[in-house]
Amino acid sequence: MDSDLLRSFVAFAECGSFNRAADRIGRTPSAFSMQMKRLEDIVGNTLFERDGRNVLLTADGITFVGYARRMLSLQDEAMGKMRGQDSSRPIRIGCPDDYTQKILPVVLRAIRKTHPDAKFFISVNPTILLHRMLDQGELDVSIISRSEKGEEGYFLRHEPGVWVSSPIHKQHLANPLSLVLPAEDCKFHAWAIDAISKADRPFTLFATTRQAASLLHLVRDGLGVAALAAASVTDEFQILESRDGFPPLPAVGVALMLSDASHPLVDRQLAATIQSFVSEYINDDNLTIRATG
């Protein structure tokens, strides 16, 4: 089977969009659409379905993407061996600030377990910028946020959103409430404002920032209540719940995405290893991390 068709198909599964997948592989959307029609003709099954304006994988498509990844992984492994690619350079890995404390270390350990001599260059940026860096070949692999039911990349975990205050300053008791939130392109920004508005709680928006660490500094100093991913929060903060008058927040999906022109050590088999590591070593109870040895 034509590996270009498989790579285009997997690009869609990892991007969740015909337009982004077409951009990633350097084709026009119409050419990409023709490729996917040809692939459906070859396999003899419907791989895509429409849900309003969105294009999703069918059950057969979800099944086939697993086989496509395995075929490409074998091809990439073979070609890497034949070409003698340089595996000594650092692996360029991206990660949103929210996940640097508790998820990124587990991902790095998973890679080092498979490749003990691997070195890393870590880029911490918002998901929207990490997508762009992957598409432009500036990263080999990246942890990203996606919608909870999204299909982009290799799923790692569902990440709950939480309200966070300081147990010392107790700013969550103030009226009106002072909020410190992620930037507007982060899902938690809109979710927080929507939830607190529906709860009829008066509030002011004190500050926004793209860095979870900056939000937590503001919370620590009593300047506001934050809404962000649970993975960002350490034990020194107070997580607010319904009994404190704060409605629950939705979860986001956390996934791993690979660049098409990635490091020779980064392949789909490694992505599966990382998935297993995250599932085994990150505990959803208070997001604790089990020692990896």
TrEMBL record:
Residues 1-58 form the HTH lysR-type domain. GO terms for molecular function: DNA binding; DNA-binding transcription factor activity. Keywords: DNA-binding, Transcription, Transcription regulation. The keyword DNA-binding applies. InterPro entries: LTTR, LysR_HTH_N, LysR_subst-bd, WH-like_DNA-bd_sf, WH_DNA-bd_sf. Gene3D superfamilies: Periplasmic binding protein-like II, Winged helix-like DNA-binding domain superfamily/Winged helix DNA-binding domain. Pfam families: HTH_1, LysR_substrate. It comes from the Bacteria. The keyword DNA-binding applies. Belongs to the LysR transcriptional regulatory family. This is Transcriptional regulator. It comes from Thalassospira lucentensis.
